[in-house]
Amino acid sequence: MRKKTRRVRVGRVEIGGDAPISVQSMTKCDTRDVPEVLRQIRALAEAGCDIVRVAVPNEEAAAALRDICRESALPVVADIHFDYRLALKALEAGVDKLRLNPGNIGARWKIETVVREAKARGVPIRIGVNAGSLEKDILEKYGYPTPEGMVESALRHAAILEDLDFRDIVISVKASNVPTMIRAYRLLSEKVDYPLHLGVTEAGTTFSGTVKSAVGIGSLLADGIGDTIRVSLATDPVEEVRVGWEILRSLGLRTRGVNIVACPSCGRVQIDLVKVAEEVEKRLGHIDVPLNVAVMGCVVNGPGEAREADVALFGGKGVGMLVVDGEPVRRTTEEEMVDALVQKVEEMAAELRAAGDPEKVLRQRRARRHERADGDAAAAAPPVAGGSTAADSRLPPAGPRGS
User: Fold this and answer.
1) Alpha-carbon distance 306 to 298, whole Å?
2) Measured distance CA(386)–CA(155) in Å, rounded
3) Of 138, 149, 174, 310, which residue is least crowded by CB atoms under 10 Å?
4) Alpha-carbon gap, residue 154 to 172, rounded angstroms
5) What are the tens digits of pLDDT across the range 55-98?
6) Interatomic CA distance for residues 376 and 251, integer angstroms
């Protein structure tokens, strides 16, 4: 069960409470280049990003925020380090949230100055603790960036905000070491009811960073900890959003777009399943309706996955069967099977959008499908020779190795 936290509003997006777990990213260009910043923000919004952060390293970047905030498709967070005056300029520009690094922002009076202005404008603050930039006295106390030291830093600075009766707080305690990050968030969650922003900082390249983020963020979300996430990857920020959504979808926390189930391929498969699955994923990337799509290649798990999916492609020996709501509807050649699947998914997505509430309609369709499957199972004929069933005979042959 997800831990109940305070609710904080960032522009039109809410973090914490029972609000959906939001997905964040960060622009990866010079903030002074306003057209490029806005281009990246539009791409992030289309990918499903909820909140975007921009770096504010100097006064020119702070000045650019006014145009960025006015045109942005997403709530904008100003990422502030070292100079508290940049935070004040960001607030004047109209940002929706500040991220302050307590390890480098300076004296308490500087933080208090920013907090008073943020409070007057109704702008929340994320206390963004990072293992790589802890305060000197905390490093001296613990010897190195420990989870306990990171939490101490976060609580110290939360207390400053609380002393000024400021409660619109979000906290993060990020580290590039996954076990350290997990331990820090678990400790912090025991001590505060502020919403937590999860992330593995400097996670790495697309491959390694995705794995680290899935383990770190996913472990905490599975424990009910976390209210908003940012996957940090050394790649296009859109990929961060795609990975973030996949983490949420894998845990059943949010759904957006097509969920593809594909068998990993083995010696029983007699189509180029890997190529087919990759092409399907690429060509269905524009679908925003949360459909379950299966791409299967043999009779071991194929029939079961095909029945569970909203749309499925079950291939064998150069041919494929398109299955919709558990029922075979069309036989295709291997060359045509991807086109057939994509066409059917696009048709179903359009139909569901036209219905007004795609997720509700999908739940109803899936419930009917399960009821029908239960009835079919009760009336199923006994296995025939070779271990296959009557249901299997409706699907394309998988060749001698799969029969």
Assistant:
1) 11
2) 66
3) 138
4) 8
5) 999 999 999 999 999 999 999 999 999 999 999 999 999 999 99
6) 30
Q: Which residue has the tokens 């959504």?
A: 245
**Residue that the structure tokens 């009076």 belong to:** 109
Read off the amino acid at residue 389: T
CB 143 within 8 A of CB 115: no
Q: Does an H or E element contain 391, and which? A: none
Q: What distance in Å separates the CA atoms of residue 129 and residue 304, rounded to the nearest whole number?
A: 46
∠216-217-222 over CA atoms, to 5°?
A: 105
Region(s) of the chain under CATH 3.30.413.10: 259-402
Answer yes or no: are the C-beta atoms of 229 and 197 closer than 8 Å: yes
- Name the one residue in this structure whose structure tokens are 């079950």: 314
CATH architecture for segment(s) 259-402: 2-Layer Sandwich (3.30)
- Give the CATH architecture of domain 8-250: Alpha-Beta Barrel (3.20)
Tell me the residue type at 56: V
CA distances from 297 to 25, 231, 341 (A): 36, 32, 14
Closest listed residue to residue 151, CA positions, set 106, 204, 194: 194
Q: Tell me the binding residues for [4Fe-4S] cluster.
A: 263, 266, 298, 305
Structure tokens given for 84: 């508290």
| pLDDT (tens digit per residue) in 192-238 | 999 999 999 987 899 999 999 999 999 999 999 999 999 999 999 99
Residues 163-195 as b or e (16 or more Cβ within 10 Å = b):
eeebebbbbbbbbbbbebbbbbbbbbbeebebb
- One-letter amino acid at 287 equals I
Residues spanned by CATH 3.20.20.20 within the chain? Answer: 8-250
pTM for the whole structure: 0.85
CA neighbours within 13 Å on the CB side: how many for 87? 29
